[in-house]
Input
Amino acid sequence: MAEQTAPARAGTPSPAKSDAAVVRDALGVGVAVGLSGFAFGVTAAGSGLTLLQTCALSLLVFTGASQFALVGALAAGGNPYTAAAGAFFLGVRNTFYGLRLSQLLALPRAVRPFAAHWVIDETTAVSLAQPTRRAARIGFTVTGATLYVLWNLTTLLGALGAEAIGDTDAWGLDAAGPAVFLALLAPMLTSTTERAVAALAVVIGLGLLPVLPAGVPVLLAALAAPAVLYVAGRRSPAREDTTDDAPHGTDGHDAHDPDPATDPGTRTESATGTGTRTAGDTGDDTHDQRGDDQRGRDGTGQAER
Output
């Protein structure tokens, strides 16, 4: 039963999905993204990295966004430490992916250190899209293996090709890295908040690019996320206050209902009703007293007789 635990949302049925379909989807993602390693190899070689350094990055780091950020900052003449810091912060997101996948995949402890190297955007997306744990494991494994092999192979080919063609700037290949990164990022921006964060990050990055060293604008652009979330959080309570505005008084009475404590007509009606009830009570008491007197006289007459 644990093997078939579905990661789908509660209350929604988990459609059956064959292993062949999972493999097909995983191969599609792995091949499509893996071929972009050629662009990284070209960009890394154009930024001044050697063939060994370029291949080592793909083998040991294996996270495309961080690799592109590193070589991009180096190509722009940035400080290596600043470039490494930007790449590190981009790679932190994989830690949060790992927290989610560790519960979903439930891999044996001996396998987890090796599987952690494949925890990236693509493997996480494919795994979370599967309806069962078995399918998630297959998707993670096939995507990770395909992407790792192709990414490293095309990185090698790209670095060798860059050395063969000489000046990569003359061919405009320095734009390949940002283009691939945008192609990977664009489909993930599905909500208004995410688009706002991306737009503000672009404005911050481009605005600070002329005045700060290369690599620093990328780090400061990350401030777009908390800024947008703060504004969105302040707008939500204000919207709730507007919808909750109803014509009710503070004491629980409707605003159009008269207040017994202040409306004269209500006080008159209350007083009249009280008076009527008092008069009725008095009449009842008088009637009871007359009955008692009558019974007393009857008893006296009987005693005299």
Observations:
- Residues 1-13, 250-256, 266-283, 299-305 have pLDDT under 50 and may be disordered.
